[in-house]
Amino acid sequence: MEKKEDTPSRIIKRRYEEKNKDKRKAANGTFGTYLPRSELEEVNAFLKKYGITKVELIRQGYRALQEQIKGSYNGT
Questions:
Q1: pTM higher than 0.70, yes or no?
Q2: Nearest CA among 31, 25, 34 for reference residue 59
């Protein structure tokens, strides 16, 4: 695979990304996980159909689970 030609804007962008890499890593995280291909395609089709981002799916799912657990948690 050939590397694209270095242009002034690409050089500036690389320099900026290198300087800010640690800040970005400290501020953001990722879920390194895999789904079976069929399930992944089903989820992606659903998200596309309703215009939902994967990030929004995670946030809403997390909130729903919090509410579900809060409602069933007995304090032990």
A1: no
A2: 31
Q: Where are the domains of the chain?
A: 8-72
Q: Is 69 exposed, middle or buried (0-12, 13-18, 19+ CB in 10 A)?
A: exposed
**Euclidean distance between CA atoms 23 and 20, whole angstroms:** 5
Q: Where are the alpha helices (DSSP H) in the chain?
A: 8-27, 37-50, 54-72
Exposure of 9 in the CB half-sphere (CA atoms within 13 A): 1
pLDDT (0 to 100) of residue 75: 56
